[in-house]
Fold:
Amino acid sequence: MNMAAKGREKIREIYVNAGGGYKVTVGAGLIDKCGELLRPVLAGDTVMLVTDTNVAPLYLKRVSSSLANAGFRVVSYAIQAGEASKNMVVITSLLEFFADSGLSRSDAVVSLGGGVVGDIAGFAAGVYMRGVAFVQIPTTLLASVDASVGGKTGVDLSAGKNLAGVFHQPRGVICDVSCLETLPQDVFADGVAEVIKTGILSGAELFSLCESRIDKSENLIDIIEKCVQYKAKIVEEDEREGGLRKLLNLGHTVGHAIERLSGYTILHGHAVARGIAVISRAAAALGYLSEDVLRRIISALEVNGLPTTTEYAAAELAAAAISDKKRKGGTITLVMPRGIGDCALVDYPVDELEGIFSLGLSGAGTNACDGTGAL
Structure:
């Protein structure tokens, strides 16, 4: 019996107390009843369904039909799939399409796709008429466990990733695990990187599941639920990333630098996996993390087919990371793992980044940096 058939009776609901508050629904076979699920939380008559050229042939017709059966007028727009679409030119074209289609302030934007689609559609919804209702229907593991929850939206600038954006919480999130069955393995593994990140942050219950290979099995409902529960707790305490929410950037400073240096040809999760490995090795070299836990983190990445090394030098990574959103003047906040379920936010002078990254690339050395990193 496939995952969709086995999982239909397993529907989980997680409430996120951010923005106006919303529900994340996780289960199998949900996209065919998304209209029924969304009708109570959307007041308008029109839904602007934003997707991409990969997802549209798979799910656009089914989602449109469900929304139409619930009484919505459905208008759709498909962007070109891929990170290259996360730019202001695409945003402008999308906003013009909203206006030309008669989208009013009482109507809604629905994102159908992965993290790129969610970022673009959410940003556009957040700025159109100063904000219209927004819903996420993620079709990738990465979007299900991370990008669809929490209200972060944005696009890339030439200086770096996600440097333009708004916080715009959705009215609802529908995670249909049946959609994950169609994912190519590298795209599925991209999401596993974010699961491992969340496991390191949240503790042994989730991380232990990451120490064996995660596949497209029925326990994905449980895994997504655990990830969303953890992220919801963080977002509820720090909706706009003033402090605690920065923990969710574990592996992302190096990861974003790798993405930028690659011209965004390296998938986000694969870049984050490399970033987790680099910062974990640096944390061990600096005495924050035991060698045993470091081995477990590296093993979890490797057993799930994720990379733990990068061809970029420490100097290149440091230069690319300086434009990161986590920089404050002459310092940058790094997320340093100290154990499973124990990570710390540590501010370092930006001129120490190269030394820290060198430790993470080599795994050697113990006292390369002083700075403000003492815990």
In short: Residues 3-183 form a domain with the Rossmann fold fold (CATH 3.40.50.1970). Residues 3-8, 364-375 have pLDDT under 50 and may be disordered.
